[in-house]
């Protein structure tokens, strides 16, 4: 069993197929294909998982601010990379994480 740590105000993980609510479970458990490239690892928390204090949710940093994770900062390229990342992670198409979430109370 893998233990991940999330912000205490993170929303509960939605059911498979439900709209993403920014719970962060998927990206904290393992990086997606985009995250593998950015994090340079196949297991563990993605380095591009970003907590949004104002909205109390997680976002993919590659969608919001790709230049932060890349060695170059060209605005035209950043916009294209952001769109590519959005398609690659199927952003907005629903939860695809089959992770089982247990709370401290379940332990």
From TrEMBL:
Residues 12-42 form the 4Fe-4S ferredoxin-type domain. This is 4Fe-4S ferredoxin-type domain-containing protein. It comes from Deefgea piscis.
């Amino acid at each position: 069993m893998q233990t991940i740590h999330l912000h205490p105000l993170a929303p509960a993980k939605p059911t498979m197929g439900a709209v993403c609510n920014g719970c962060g479970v998927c990206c904290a458990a393992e990086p997606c294909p985009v995250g593998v490239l950015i994090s340079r690892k196949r297991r563990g928390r993605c380095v591009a998982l970003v907590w949004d204090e104002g909205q109390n949710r997680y976002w993919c940093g590659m969608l919001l601010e790709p230049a932060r994770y890349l060695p170059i900062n060209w605005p035209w390229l950043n916009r294209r990379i952001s769109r590519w990342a959005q398609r690659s992670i199927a952003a907005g198409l629903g939860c695809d994480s089959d992770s089982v979430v247990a709370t401290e109370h379940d332990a």
